[in-house]
Amino acid sequence: MIHRLILILSLIVISLRTVCGQNVTTDAAQTELYKEILMQDSIFFSAFNRCDTVAYRQYLTNDFEFYHDLGGLHYLDEEMQSMRELTQKKARIRRQLLKNTLEVHKLGDYGALEIGVHRFYHTNPGQSEHVSGTYKFIHVWQKKDNAWRISRIISYDHGKMNNN
């Protein structure tokens, strides 16, 4: 009877160690992915905030698609044209990620899904910076040849925009 009890307890301990060990590995991988995407997001939007079209372009795939609830769908060429126009304006736009809203999920061997909320600030010539709005986004990140790039952006919940 005692041998049977020891055997059952041993099996339970081994099972728990296996299950917990797998969860720790999964949690560690998820944490690592989260940190990696957070860093990529920071670099990408640093280029956006500086209006650095060269660095910005490096983070977009050739088949890039941007879905916007007000502007509809546009592709890579239109996105880059929009960035070039932004650099020529005297007004500035700055994006800030609200980190407490960030979610990152693995997308199999393709890459990662980034979901969150970000705030944009607008500065017109001769005026101080003001909040233009807080919006939701989804980014589909592709990891190819050890480099992260965004293949799809969905930007939504633009009820009120204050760019003036």
From TrEMBL:
InterPro entries xrefs: DUF4440, NTF2-like_dom_sf
Record SUPFAM superfamilies: NTF2-like
Residue ranges occupied by any DUF4440 domain in the UniProt entry: 41-150
A Pfam family annotated for this UniProt entry: DUF4440
Protein name: Nuclear transport factor 2 family protein
